[in-house]
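This part of the workshop introduces the protein records we will be handling. A record pairs a protein's sequence with a compact description of its fold. As an example, a complete record with its sequence and its structure tokens follows.

_____
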Amino acid sequence: MQTGTGHIGLPEAGLSEKAEGPRRPERARLRWAAWLEALGVVLSPAVAAIVLRLRLMAPSSLPDPAIHTGYIIDPSEIFARYGAFFARTGRLREVARVGFLVPARLAYLAFGAVPGFFVTRYVFALVAVCPVYLLLRRLYGRPAGVAGILAVLSSPVIITAWGSDYPDSAVVAYAAGLLACLAMPCRPGSRRRWLAAAGILITLAVWSDGFSVLLAAGTLAGYVVVRLVRDRARLLGDLALLAGVGIAVTALLAGASAVVIGHANFIAVTWRAYRFLSQPDQTRVWHSANWRWVLYVPYVLVPPAVLGALTVAVARRRRAVPTPVLVVGAAAAGQLAFFGWMQFAGSVQSLEYYFSSSALWAAVALVLAITVAELAKPLSGRPLARWLPAAVLLAVPLLYEAAPRVPPFRLVPLGVMLAIATTGIAAIARGCARFGRQLVVATTIGLSLAALAGAALVLTVAPIPHHRHLPGTVPSTIEPAPPYASALGSRGTLYIDRYRIAAALPSFVGQPAYPGEQLLMWWPRPDKDTYIEDAGVVARGEINELQSQPPQLTTADQAKLGRRRPAELLLFDSSAASFPTALRNLAAYRPVLMRSGEFGAGPVVLHAWLIRLGVYYHPPANVG
């Protein structure tokens, strides 16, 4: 590839063959090598899961992921029970996230709950690593491609996102593939195919989570700036192609959503949710007016830190920086700028909740991989040493797994010092090429890269320190804390067992007897984190629950029952001991036990009782 004045569509070095081409035996060997290489990339998520001991599922400390699980398992039940009740608010907004829900529900229909969960995540991993590998391979060679895969698959933020049914699991995958496709060096004839792929991914991301609008805006802003500087020709046509692909994919998603979810007009739902959440009272609930919460969240320093390291790594005359590197860097900077602006100058909680800021980490992983590849250029001509960057990006998470004990610290001063050190380490690594002896160069570059990757990892996984509530901040701003520290070296078996039980509850509850037959839940409040996934899957979490500890029915519970008039009540607990008393306390509502069940998976046991409240239940209209 010509990295000076050429545009993204110019061919990379080595794409063209000599006119007579290689001989037949050589072509056969190359063909086999290409197939083995492709197989290695396809199997890389499974290999990484084994070697790095990735946590395969994340803990559920919020109802939001489990609410999406309910749409994946049985969306018709949710519409039948709560469609009319939530129609005028933004509470059906999860159903609009079809970029995630459609593939996840298809996997559920084909494979079931837990297998479908992992099939979906494997597809997401391939969407991320395949374009990233190809981009890095074309720019720097196969070792850099492997380093790109490792940067993605060892990221605690990406692993955590993939570990739940929150839509950021799809967004991080689409965003990684999107950046790689936009920056892909290719022949001019292939350029529009890569742009079309980017258009598909950016549309899927936008329709997976509302925060992806900021992601898309930042990405396109950076891309357009680079194109205006390097390659203005056909820019309008390329943007028109992206827009056309976006419209076509949106139409296909509408049809797919109608078939597998039962709701086609997700655009109207998104608009209603936007209007609802934009109200001042909602903004006060979700967005902090005081910025000082950021002083306790060191992981927000990782995106600017790796961008600083990339800037140092490519600092040279402007025309010498490869155009694809500029595209990735500018897009990552644009994403960070849009997220930061909306958080600190606007009214969108784009950074203070980890499941929204996680969207930035696709760019973080790709920028880190490119930075490492750029700093390792002095090793590129040495058959063994050129694999050092990939070895470093494998060794750093393995070393962390051996002793995952990063203490909590604040943004200032330690967090800022680590972020600055990341940029300084990049400068040191770049200067290592001046050493004369090859062994010294390789050793110093390897140690520098390990320090750079280690600093970024420490900033990412550092626990949030305990602190008092800050005036002007949302109480749940950084609570629950992101479970990044346990993403490496933890299988997450307990979380898989809980997911298996939660996924079985919709079938236990069954379809409502008539539209609008609402269901409320009653479950132990002291063990909130233990049961929040079950509650979210069955009945949209906290809004449809009684607040007291079973079996004690409080005045507030009675008032809520009177307001909501639910036909059914789902009571669940780890023990059956409280059920007889709970049933007696419900006597005024003429309770009838419809069914009971015991669910077990590994060490997790859940007892459930579905109770009909005769005082509110009315038979279906067609029943005499």
